[in-house]
From TrEMBL:
The modification 4-aspartylphosphate is found at D62. Residues 13-127 form the Response regulatory domain. The keyword Phosphoprotein applies. It comes from Azospira restricta. This is Sigma 54-interacting transcriptional regulator. Keywords: ATP-binding, DNA-binding, Nucleotide-binding, Phosphoprotein, Transcription, Transcription regulation, Two-component regulatory system.
Amino acid sequence: MNLAVMLQPPSAHVLVVDDDPDLLRLLSMRLRASGYRVTAVDTAEAALARVAVERPDLVLSDVRLPGRDGLALFDELRQQHPALPVILLTAHGTIPDAVAATARGVFGYLTKPFDSQALLEKIRQALALSPAPAEEDGGDGDAWRAGIVSRSKRMAEVLEEAKLVAASDAGVLIRGESGSGKELLARAIHRASARAAKPFVAVNCGAIPESLLESELFGHVKGAFTGATANHLGLFQAADGGTLFLDEIGDMPLPLQVKLLRVLQERAVRPVGATAAVPIDVRILSATHRDLEAAMAEGAFREDLFYRLNVVGLTLPTLDERREDIPLLANHFLQALVEKYGKKVNGFAPEALEALATAPWPGNVRQLYNVVEQVCALATSPLIPLALVQRALRVRGNEVLSYAEAKLRFERDYLVQLLKLTDGNVSDAARLADRNRTELYRLLQKHDLVPAHFRGDGDDVAGGRRG
């Protein structure tokens, strides 16, 4: 199916501006016959007045109008509604003006006389690659989901469930691939809850070494271990009254899973080295990109903890499953990045935006943001061209790894190099790494690395042939 047809909003509202009454009537008839809701006016001033009452989904305007012309109308609309798509109708004498206008952000132009099918296709493209009014302007009732930009039905269903569960204190397990926005959803649930005025504290369980994670979560008292020179408040206590978000909960080591379960059962936390527990009032939200059911079957994740955390489960769709959001997100990110870099960029060329909308996104929303940041930083013209987007899309996926993913990859590569250097001798590897043998064995198991495979009499190296 044509992308424009697939992403077009239903019953889109088109504002048509032309001072030729016959052409205005003809355009209105053709658009209504194609299923659009049409408002027709004959001056730029009348168009601005109608937009003030109700923002349309698209403006179709002649360039030559009495009083303020179509280009001046576009400039005014651009200030009020940056994402509102405008298509210009132009006679041959005004083509240079229309071409110049596309560099300022006009979606496109058609020369008179124009083909009806070409006009309808241009309108479909513009509507598919532009946000709907509610998505651009927002609403007072949407403050809780600030930062989550979407018009996808899949995301709407997830957000509806999230708002319902926010009213309770039930544990929520958010599933989704890396970069799909799990922390954003957790923050939204917190803002929609009765705990909104209290702290929201997030911790990535896969990014902190096991030896430090316990102290970070539960705190410690002075003298609890070497280097503990003062009492340290843990994240559970820091989040008291509010919400604690445990990201990548599937990476939490088993010993800490036991202690976390006890905290959830007793509603109290005992800092490392302390003799008494401290009562806490914290709601737990957690997230993972791992298959926890498989981890439970392998004994790597506790079943009793899983059911404590997964009272309600929410699953975020991948970006590929919500393609209608890609143009919306790309424009949203671009507006923020233009401010950040102080660039004079008005938007994407239509073909550049379509390239983003049809590209694969293994890194999800995080990868899309990084691509938009790259093209914004490198842009030298008011409209980002297709060539710049194509260049950014060729960047290898490892450039958009999350911190946790990059850390895991470095850790595995480091261990492989150690084992190669020591010919699979764990004692020598531990000495070089300044770690004890037990800790090194645990790390090797974590990455499925078998020391024997690195010895001279072995054939395989981490699943591959020795080179």
